[in-house]
Amino acid sequence: MHQQIIVHSKNIIISLILLLSVPAYSQGFLKANGRLIVDSKGNKVILRGMGLGGWMLQEGYMFRLANMGQQYKIKSCIEEVAGPEYASKFYESWLTNHTRKIDVDSMAAWGFNSIRLPMHYQLFTLPVDLEPVAGQNTWLEKGFTLTDSLLKWCKANKMYLILDLHAAPGGQGNDLPISDRDPSKPSLWESKANQQKMIALWKKLAQRYANEPAIAGYDIINEPNWGFEKPEDKRGTEETKNEPLRQLMMDITKAIREVDKNHIVIIEGNGFGNNYRGIFPLWDQNMVLSFHKYGNFNNPSAIQNFLNLSQQYQVPLWMGESGENSNTWFTEAIRLAESNNIGWCWWQLKKIGINNPLEIKLTPSYQKLLDYWNGKSSKLPKNQAIAALDEFLDNIKLENTIYHKDVTDAMFRQINTQATLPFNRNIIGGNTTINAIDYDLGGQRSAYFDKDTASYQYTPGVKTIGNRGHAYRNDGVDIQADDNNYYVFSIEDGEWLQYTINVNSKGTYTVRFIVSSDAGKGTFSLILNNNRLPDSVAVTGSRGAKNWSTFELKNIKLPKGNNKIRVYADEGGFNLKAITFIKN
């Protein structure tokens, strides 16, 4: 069954189709049962989740700060332009503004039944080198309070919460930003004190949440990437034994079970959660094997190794992190996972960029900060830097972000249907204009056809990227901006866009197209309700991507009611900005 739920926030309306097909929440604890995750009644549960990347732990790339990388470097840069006192206030406001009840309510409305919380250990305890007494643990209430609030919001929406230690004491790998690791200090693997603190933290968390059935499980270590046998194996993908990783995960599980025998323990292999050599056999009866999937093909062979492990050791699988791609890739990956009874969790809810449900706006004031931090301009006065950062803090609130309904549509509705929906209500009257970028909601070959629909950055020899303009929508259609007005560009032979229109009254219409072309070429025609119309438009005399010209087709008979019109590129090379319907 599908149910449409609308969430109101100030002047925006967020709506999408909510999938309610599989039991998602019960009062009992989730358990591993053979190859399945089940609820207290033995019903299969498919976790459909979203990760809160960027909340408790910032990674630079999410905010166009990839050159900084780690959170402690970002904080240092904020201190440099705005002062240490402001930087402390900034991070307090960041934790308050980034994730609130409205975020959880919206995720539930879109169809998510679970949330993965990437935790930074420093919100829960002090680093080992700052402990007043060596070997002891100072507990900080901040992290626990934030987690309690999130859990409360999840329970109100009948959602599960997965706790994920994303930044472990000392840092668990050579990918520095994902754990906010300072390479000048001992890593998790180089410090027994860091390992003991990690074990103690998990015991503390398990003790606090032992009787909370809304906690789905404990994802005890995120993406370890370390060469134990070969230090030069920076990613940990070549390790064959992984003995330190296995021992640490066993020690953590033992500590958890001393205070909590209820919750699933989720483990991740080396090599960013994918290298499980040496990890088996498992040491607990209630465990789930997590793997992370990015930028490869969505066919069974891509996950066959994990399916084999699941079959051999009778353990459930969970695709604990995925995303950062196009809508086509999202739909295919989720179908692949769910067809094999595998739950999934996407990365992440919001950042600057289009391939997530919520996009943080890139404003001129914040861009000035980026230009300074990237060495492209002089330092801003302190008051201007503070104003830019205050604006950024306001822009991370859900109601000030850009909601990409095409992303959530691809993740839920399109999994089960090839039907399309109008992107906007296109009511055709006497004179109506539709922006070219507002083609129908739907997948490749349903709402549009593009020869490049996804990124396969981890597949050798494949150079595709999806939307080459990285703007407005996350489909394969190439979109970029022209003075804040978006248009479709890089249209190739055979590509097409579909628009569902609702005609008020039947009649004969003139259809006008705003078009440009770098090479002064291109031909397109219309397909009305699956029937190709005889006339076509040849793009001539229009050279330059932003040198827009108007072309038209006359005497187009449109019946009353819903119609589907496709703009088909017989010869590519042109750009399309808008379509206007004028009743004769």
From TrEMBL:
Keywords: Glycosidase, Hydrolase, Signal. CDD domains: CBM6_cellulase-like (cd04080). GO terms for cellular component: cell surface; extracellular region. Belongs to the glycosyl hydrolase 5 (cellulase A) family. It comes from the Bacteria. The keyword Aminoacyl-tRNA synthetase does not apply. The lineage of its organism: Bacteria, Pseudomonadati, Bacteroidota, Sphingobacteriia, Sphingobacteriales. One of its GO terms (molecular function) is beta-glucosidase activity. PROSITE patterns: CBM6 (PS51175). It comes from Mucilaginibacter arboris. This is Cellulase family glycosylhydrolase. InterPro entries: CBM6, Cellulose-bd_IV, Galactose-bd-like_sf, GH, Glyco_hydro_5, Glycosyl_hydrolase_5. Signal peptide: none annotated. GO terms for biological process: glucan catabolic process. Residues 432-582 form the CBM6 domain.
